[in-house]
Amino acid sequence: MYKTFGIFAHVDTGKTTFSEQILYYGQGIQARGRVDHQNAFLDLHPIERERGITVFAEQGIFTYNNNTYTMIDTPGHVDFSPEMERAIQVLDYAVVLVDAVDGVEGHTETVWQLLRKHHIPTFFFINKMDREGANLDKAIASIHALLTPNTVVLTNHLTKEMDEPLAEAVAALDDTLMERYFETGYTRDVFEAALCQMIRDERVFPIHYGSALQDEGISTFLQHFDRLTATNYDAAAPFAARVYKVRHDEKGQRIAYLKIDAGRLKAREALEIDGEMMKVGQIRLYNGEKFEQLQEAIAGQSVGIYGLKNAVIGTTFGDAVSYKAPSLVPTLQSRVVFEDGVSPKEMLRYFRLLEAEDPSLEIVWQEALQEIHLHIMGVIQLEVLQQVLAERFQLMVQFEAPTIIYKETIFTSTKGYGHFEPLKHYAEVHLRMEPAPRGQGITFINECHADDLLVGQQNLIQKHVLERAHHGLLTGSAVTDIIVTLVTGKAHIKHTEGGDFREATHRALRQGLEQVENVLLEPYYAVVMRAHIDHMGRMMSDLQMASGTFDAPFTEGEYVTIHARVPVASFLTYPTHFAAYTNGKGSIRLVFDGYDRCHNTEEVIERIGYDKQADSNYTSNSIFCSHGKGYVVPWQEAEALMHANTEL
């Protein structure tokens, strides 16, 4: 049986040490490495060894009780959350580590929400029980308060068979099981099978505890994990797989990492990507930095494939599990600064390679300014990128100080009309645009009749709506949270080409924006602050000054906890100030909480200084043709000249 599981934790919770222990007990490695010794098995990159943090999600493989496990060690630092989220998509199970002293921390809450979004059954391991101040009961209480109350503690309970307290705890989670327990007691097979199913259904989340550093509780955890997990991959079914990771080797050749959901894949077999058939080259089963070359990969395995040059993260084959759009998105952006004499456009190729490996970077090439911009999660990520560029491509670059990524949306519904008819070209597009709930992004709906536009032309318009971020009018930031409906359009049997619909679609979107109130959005943090009650006034005052909102403070003994929502721009450097005035004895958690109205719109618009008339990539105007010559029609006058029925 093939099982894939991931290890997750807030930074410095002992995740990599725990992973080493699991690999050792699974006989995947002969000796356990340590982060501080820079010899951990899955810290493959010099950056990880030097910094003592996990940056890249890597897999180790071991066999235990005739089950084959793929274990993925994921980054724990928030700056590398997109890498962690991509790994979640291929898991059968997850293990979340919680510090026995600090309890559940901010990043762990984010991880938990992602695991629930992707429906990954989850085990807890409370680590560092050997530390001074470790408190098992408080750590469990933090899990119950911040994550879930539906837990059972298995350490010291599930040995060769269930003991009475554990049987009662399991029965309490299921009415049918509870009735059976009272009537006939329990039998190991029935109750253990029930617990296994409840774990798979995410109705219960087992807790283990111990110390990875001191090798306490690890062997017991692995025994229980093996007994209580199961998968049902079918190697005889039609082939289905998805690309969850992309890397490039030292020669720049693309390696597409596939999780095979069903069936088999042989070397030299052909796969179709975007209408093009591509032959599978090498199939590599990676185990740390080593790999085994396979002639065939089967359901349940995660393998690296050569030859799929068009494969990107999210590419699927057959009836594979759909790849879900990421929840964790960068809120900062930065400009690349090159040394004198270096051509930024020449360097763009290397940044495109990095973008293929991490799509969250969203590399933006600004042709007019000859500049490269990228999206990031935080300043540590910039430091790592700088080192990666130097080591992999011998590029010496600097980055400007990060700035906030703003977005734009509309306040009310509108219609947008775009017409593109220079000589021997023709396309017209009518769109209805409506505000969507925060965080929904751009949604496309097609209400166009086939009598108006061919299905292929309708699909082209959908592609052009969704293929890129579209500039807003206020700051040139990407527009979002809009439902775009294709109402109708027109084409010419002789003169219409595919690119014509791109022009008409972009003009229709822009023309629609011109007719309504546009809203500037900024990213927000959900904040939890805890400190001595003497600091409560300062905390509340700081939140108000930062344009934040907060619930009534909750006091517990001499400490106060405040839950708040604050613009990222106002709180970027606040944790440093908080640590200073609480003398390091307070705690603060910042978790990305989506986008909302900007608290200082006018100031931001003035600072960015975007000129919508000078944006060469977008225009609100349409082009019509008269007497064999194209002419520009301002957006205000375009609707009246449209050829299709504007009353629809």
Automatic annotation (TrEMBL):
It comes from the Bacteria. Residues 1-233 form the Tr-type G domain. SUPFAM superfamilies: EF-G C-terminal domain-like, P-loop containing nucleoside triphosphate hydrolases, Ribosomal protein S5 domain 2-like, Translation proteins. One of its GO terms (molecular function) is GTPase activity. The keyword Protein biosynthesis applies. The keyword Nucleotide-binding applies. Pfam families: EF-G_D2, EFG_C, EFG_IV, GTP_EFTU. InterPro entries: EF-G-like_DII, EFG_III/V, EFG_V-like, P-loop_NTPase, Ribosomal_Su5_D2-typ_SF, Ribsml_uS5_D2-typ_fold_subgr, Small_GTP-bd, T_Tr_GTP-bd_dom. PROSITE patterns: G_TR_2. Keywords: Elongation factor, GTP-binding, Nucleotide-binding, Protein biosynthesis. One of its GO terms (biological process) is ribosome disassembly. NCBIfam families: small_GTP (TIGR00231). PANTHER family: RIBOSOME-RELEASING FACTOR 2, MITOCHONDRIAL, TRANSLATION ELONGATION FACTOR G-RELATED. This is Elongation factor G. It comes from Candidatus Kurthia intestinigallinarum.
